[in-house]
Specification:
Among the domains are: 133 residues, Tetratricopeptide repeat domain (Serine Threonine Protein Phosphatase 5, Tetratricopeptide repeat), CATH 1.25.40; 87 residues, Serine Threonine Protein Phosphatase 5, Tetratricopeptide repeat (Alpha Horseshoe). The protein is an all-alpha fold and 331 residues long.
């Protein structure tokens, strides 16, 4: 039984991954999700219509679906809407959407804006001169270098090549880029372990990379397992949580619940777990379920406990499945 627009979309993805031959059923599920407000479904529907567009009306339909999600704040939809408007020579309409996507961190939007400014002699408040255009493109190249380095390291879309990845990460680190240090840390962790990788992650954390803050904090909190290390972990985890990294929120909440490195504070932990669960972290969902079940920092609510535990179990967390069994509830 579907409970939300996202449920319809997830079911469509599940059918597509399973090799379902009923394309109409998949499209109907995506359309239902989009009409109910699922932003991902709107973007997917817009992309499918655009890819098969055979008329001006098809293009207008794709634009409408992109716009529906973009107006709800979806950066991906904003980029796709701006890109397609620009392709239709509606540059004045395209730029605000591309600027919004750029401000949300979309590197593709930066490139499109730079090209439009350069090709058409446009000006806006942040990209108004050849120097600014060059800066936009230079930054875009740097971001592409970061992505290429990770692809080479992880073997995504290309054969894994740790040596080539290391060379790119070294160059990025030399330029003061946080991802350079982070990538070198990943290579070192795989080769020689976390103790040798930690200095690289600390450098990336100092440069403001949220995931590096989390890795440092997680290692100190769960790998070293001393009270002194727990106290060292807290600033890293708090910085990562401030970036709304759900796994950092979950680990920090766990420490607050156990009073590790800090005073026990189930109320603060509950607030963190609510946000991390909303962002999709399965461990946070499990901890939130346990708090509801015990009435720790929040009134007892067995229905909410079962709801969040089932959500965690549906994401593949075996401990959540075991907990439901312990409570005598079906997953």
């Amino acid at each position: 039984m579907y409970r939300s627009p996202d449920d319809y979309y997830e079911e469509a993805l599940r059918l597509a991954r399973s090799g379902c031959s009923d394309a109409a059923q998949i499209t109907d599920l995506i359309t239902t999700a989009a009409e109910a407000g699922c932003e991902r479904a709107c973007v997917r529907l817009g992309a499918d219509i655009e890819a098969a567009a055979a008329s001006h009306q098809d293009v207008l339909a794709a634009l409408a679906w992109y716009r529906r999600a973009a107006e709800r704040g979806c950066a991906e939809a904003g980029f796709q809407l701006g890109r397609l408007l620009a392709d239709c020579d509606l540059v004045a309409d395209a730029l605000p959407w591309l600027q919004s996507a750029r401000d949300a961190g979309d590197n593709r939007a930066r490139v499109w804006i730079a090209m439009l400014v350069d090709d058409l002699g446009l000006r806006d408040e942040t990209t108004g001169s050849p120097v600014a255009v060059y800066a936009e493109l230079r930054d875009a190249v740097e971001q592409a270098k970061v992505r290429l380095a990770y692809c080479l390291l992880l073997g995504k879309g290309v054969a894994a090549d740790r040596e080539a990845a290391g060379a790119l990460f070294t160059e990025l680190d030399r330029d003061g880029h946080a991802h350079g240090a982070h990538g070198l840390g990943l290579i070192e962790r795989e080769a020689r372990g976390m103790e040798h990788a930690l200095p690289w992650f600390e450098r990336a954390a100092e440069r403001g990379l949220a995931v590096a803050c989390f890795l440092c904090g997680e290692h100190l909190a769960q790998g070293v397992r001393t009270e002194a290390a727990a106290k060292q972990a807290l600033p890293y985890l708090r910085r990562a949580a401030a970036f709304r990294l759900p796994e950092a929120m979950a680990v920090l909440a766990g420490m607050q619940l156990r009073g590790r490195g800090c005073d026990r504070d189930p109320v603060a932990a509950f607030a963190l777990l609510q946000e991390a669960s909303a962002l999709g972290d399965s461990y946070a969902m499990l901890l939130l379920a346990i708090l509801f079940h015990r009435g720790d920092g929040v009134p007892v609510d067995r229905r909410a406990a079962v709801h969040w535990c089932r959500r965690a179990a549906a994401l593949g967390l075996q401990v959540a499945v075991d907990k439901l069994r312990e409570w005598g509830v079906d997953a």
